[in-house]
Write a structure and sequence with these properties.
Elements (H helix, E strand, L loop, with lengths): L1 H17 L25 H4 L14 H10 L15 H13 L3 H206 L2 E7 L32 H7 L2 E3 L8 E9 L5 E9 L2 E3 L5 H16 L3 E8 L5 H5 L10 H17 L3 E13 L2 E4 L13 E3 L5 E3 L5 E3 L2 H18 L6 H4 L1 E12 L5 E10 L6 H4 L5 H28 L13 H5 L1 H4 L3 E9 L6 H15 L10 E2 L2
Parallel strand pairs: 1-5, 1-14, 6-13, 6-14
Antiparallel strand pairs: 2-3, 3-4, 7-8, 7-11, 7-12, 9-10, 12-13, 13-15
Helix pairs in contact: 1-5, 7-9, 9-10
Length: about 700
């Protein structure tokens, strides 16, 4: 662009040289006058002061003068003067010729004409001289004019050069200015963009500020409302304050009255404080007496238990059940007050019952300890033979006895367990004699068995002892021994698959490996544990094999206590054992069934091992201190080792069937129980550590 501009400027220069009239007049002082064209003279030499040869003067008349001027282009002085052919002269000569007829007359006419011409020439000469003078004056004037014009021209040329230089400068400036303008435009565009962004930002800020403002206004409105509310509250409060001021003054009056009463009370209070102090002392004395009494109670309780014997036997006979009668007989037992027994029907058949029932009597009504069984049979000679068997136990429960009555006798053992003894309660008897009913019981509160009741009792006693500074933790496990294999009734694994080992530590604690030990927090929790165990046993049963009858179950509750006040600690355990059915091999109907045979043999082995252990313990108690106790002969006795030794309190509940058909089994069980009952286990040791 710059080049094109320069090119244009150069072109303009050329044009200006060739066409000077077209130059634009640009003066420095801004006087933009159009330049006057310089008049080029035909002869430059004339312009330099040499006047050209002038033509001869001409007649002043128009066309004649023009012709004369053309004639003067030739050298003027040497040429003969010829009179111009003027129309007037021609006309005159024509007239003279026509009027003179001779040579004289012609010569005179020519002389006249010559004279006239001379005169005419003289006048022309003078006119020419006058013209020359005038022309010279004009030339001089023109010369001056020319000089003026030349000087103007020079000035103008100078001006033109200046103007061009100025124009060039201005064009350069223009280019620079254009560049600056472009830069300014770009800068301006950038600034504009920045400003637009700024504006947008500002607009956003304005919007935000407006939103803030709106929120503030809302807040303000709310504040105004709350101020209004507060104002009304304040006015209410002022009224209330007024009322209160009145009340305060009234109260002050009361206060001063009370102050005087208080002063009086203070006197009596210090009196009372003294009394309180002495009362506190008395309470502390009573508490320590109470603790001593508790220790004494424990001792006495233990003595009572010892006097009762550390192994005791209860005998319980279950009622006759509807299922015990032939299917077609609408039989109801007359023996039991239990809901599950058939004693309440008006249509009872006493004859049938008499025939089904064994002859069992309970002679002592107030403190029943005896049970008499009678049976009549025919001797070989055909004579009727009457047999009678009397057995004595620590307590005999007839079929009308309730679960609560049985537990009443057992509950003291729960107390012993909390006191830190190992307690073991067995249910022994043939299948269907009521062992599970006694230990676990039915689903109702009324029929709850010894396990839930004992646990409940343990919790109750533990709670009562809390006020004496004792704090207890309890946990339970529920095991089954089937065919000399231990199974976890609270576990998740498959039965008879997992191996569980029994360990006894020196502190008299027994543990079984890999079994689920559940922390017990409430007695109700035990019920759910019992139902879990029951469902696992049901799953393990087969049609041929009612597992609960063919296995021993051992529920163990471990209790550990700590007395923060005295620093004592104790650990006890309560084992509640539901033994497998004790019927003999031939009665069990095992026959050729190998599995059943194995079951029965395992049961018999473990039950006789139990008898042997108890007998050996009895002998040891009688003074044979080195007597070996064969605990390891069965899983059951090994598991219960610490609960069967002299260190524990044992109770066997012998369950009997009331049916005549089960008499022989009942006699076997009674004999076994008598053997156990006659055993003394020695003195139970409390597992308690002094602080
Ligand atoms: N004191 C009782 N009062 C009412 N019903 C009882 C009583 N004792 C047992 N029964 C009932 O007798 C039946 C057999 O009792 P249970 O199952 O307790 O016998 P078991 O000795 O545990 O038998 P198994 O060895 O087969 O387990 C059950 O239906 C039970 O409800």
């Amino acid at each position: 662009m710059l080049n094109s501009r320069k090119r244009k400027a150069a072109d303009d220069d050329q044009d200006n040289q060739t066409q000077p009239r077209k130059l634009p007049a640009i003066s420095e002082n801004g006087n933009n006058k159009p330049l006057r064209p310089s008049k080029v003279l035909p002869n430059r030499a004339a312009a330099k002061g040499k006047a050209p040869a002038l033509p001869a003067p001409k007649a002043t008349a128009g066309p004649a003068i023009r012709r004369t001027t053309r004639a003067t282009s030739a050298p003027a002085k040497n040429e003969p003067v010829r009179p111009p052919a003027r129309p007037t002269v021609v006309g005159t000569r024509g007239a003279a010729g026509r009027t003179t007829t001779g040579p004289l007359r012609g010569k005179a006419a020519e002389d006249a004409r010559f004279h006239a011409l001379q005169e005419q020439m003289t006048s022309i000469e003078s006119a020419r001289a006058a013209d020359a003078a005038r022309i010279a004056a004009i030339l001089e004037a023109e010369q001056r004019k020319l000089e003026g014009l030349q000087s103007d021209h020079q000035n103008l040329t100078q001006e033109l050069a200046d103007a061009r230089a100025q124009e060039l400068n201005q064009r350069r400036e223009l280019v620079t200015v254009n560049d600056e303008l472009e830069a300014l435009k770009r800068k301006h565009a950038n600034e504009l963009m920045v400003l637009e962004l700024e504006i947008k930002k500002k607009e956003r800020e304005i919007r935000e500020l407006k939103e803030d403002l709106r929120l503030c206004q809302e807040d303000l409105e709310r504040e105004r409302d709350s101020v209004k509310t507060l104002k009304s509250t304040v006015s209410q409060q002022s009224t209330a304050q007024l009322t209160l001021t009145t009340q305060v003054s009234a109260l002050q009056a009361q206060l001063s009255a009370l102050q005087s009463a208080l002063d009086m009370s203070c006197n009596s209070s210090s009196q009372l404080k003294l009394e309180l102090e002495s009362e506190r002392k008395r309470v502390a004395d009573l508490e320590s007496e109470n603790r001593a009494a508790e220790t004494l109670r424990r001792k006495l309780h233990n003595m009572v238990q010892e006097l009762k014997g550390n192994i005791r036997v209860f005998c319980r006979v279950r009622p006759v059940l509807a299922s015990d009668l032939p299917a077609n007989a609408l039989a109801k037992s007359i023996d039991s007050g239990n809901d599950e027994s058939p004693n309440s029907s008006p249509e009872r058949d006493d004859g049938l019952l008499e025939r089904v029932k064994a002859d069992i009597t309970y002679p002592d009504k107030l403190d029943p300890k005896e049970i008499i069984l009678r049976a009549s049979s025919e001797s070989a000679t055909g004579q009727e033979r009457k047999d009678e068997w009397t057995f004595t136990f620590d307590r005999v429960f007839d079929p009308r006895s309730t679960q609560a009555e049985v537990f009443e006798e057992i509950s003291l053992l729960a107390q012993s367990c909390v006191d830190g003894y190992n307690v073991c309660i067995f249910a022994y008897g043939q299948t269907g004699s009521g062992k599970s009913f006694t230990m676990e019981g039915g689903s109702t509160e009324y029929n709850a068995g010894m396990i839930p009741r004992a646990v409940e009792e343990v919790f109750k006693v533990a709670k009562e002892l809390e006020c004496k500074g004792w704090e207890y933790k309890m946990e339970g496990q529920f095991l089954e021994i089937y065919n000399e294999t231990i199974n976890d009734l609270l576990g998740k694994g498959e039965f008879d698959k997992k191996r569980h080992d029994i360990h006894h530590d020196k502190a008299g604690r027994t543990t079984v490996s890999d079994v689920n030990v559940v922390p017990l927090r409430s007695p109700t929790q035990v019920r759910s544990l019992l139902s879990i165990a029951q469902s696992r046993r049901t799953v393990a049963s087969t049609l041929m094999n009612e597992r609960s009858s063919r296995s021993h179950s051992v529920f163990t509750l471990r209790i550990s206590g700590e007395n923060a006040a005295t620093g004592e600690t104790c650990e006890g355990s309560l084992n509640l054992v539901d033994l497998a059915g004790s019927e003999r091999l031939e009665k069990s109907g095992a026959g050729n069934d190998k599995d059943r045979l194995k079951e029965t043999q395992s049961i018999n082995k473990s039950l006789s091992a139990l008898g042997d252990v108890i007998a050996a313990l009895g002998e040891k108690g009688d003074g044979k201190t080195d007597k070996h106790i064969p605990y390891r002969n069965s899983k059951l006795t090994y598991l219960l080792q610490n609960s069967l030794s002299g260190n524990s309190k044992t109770l066997m509940v012998l369950n009997l069937s009331p049916l005549a058909g089960h008499l022989n089994e009942s006699l076997c069980s009674l004999r076994f129980a008598t053997k156990v009952n006659n055993t003394t286990l020695g003195t139970a040791k409390k597992q308690i550590k002094a602080a």
